[in-house]
Design goal:
6 helices; globular; 434 Repressor (Amino-terminal Domain); mainly alpha; 0% strand; 80 residues
């Protein structure tokens, strides 16, 4: 699993946890629907720190809170 796939998985988990729709996240984060779709379906091969910041802001959390998940601590995540 690469970082983009890990980020997509984290987004899906947080959407469920926070009972939020993808549309609402897009509105709150400022990420366009097409870009969010590319992240979630794996067409986006790189997720930048700026994107992580925007996602965290959309979830009303800090970057640290977004990244503070076992999925990012796994040795299975490949950093390219």
């Amino acid at each position: 699993m690469n970082v983009s796939e890990a980020a997509a998985k984290r987004i899906r988990e947080l959407l469920i946890e926070k009972d939020m729709t993808q549309y609402r996240l897009e509105q709150k984060s400022g990420i366009l629907h097409g870009s969010m779709a590319c992240i979630l379906n794996g067409r986006n091969k790189t997720v930048t720190l700026s994107t992580i910041y925007m996602l965290a802001r959309g979830f009303d959390m800090t970057i640290i809170e977004f990244l503070n998940d076992d999925i990012f601590l796994s040795h299975e995540v490949e950093f390219e």
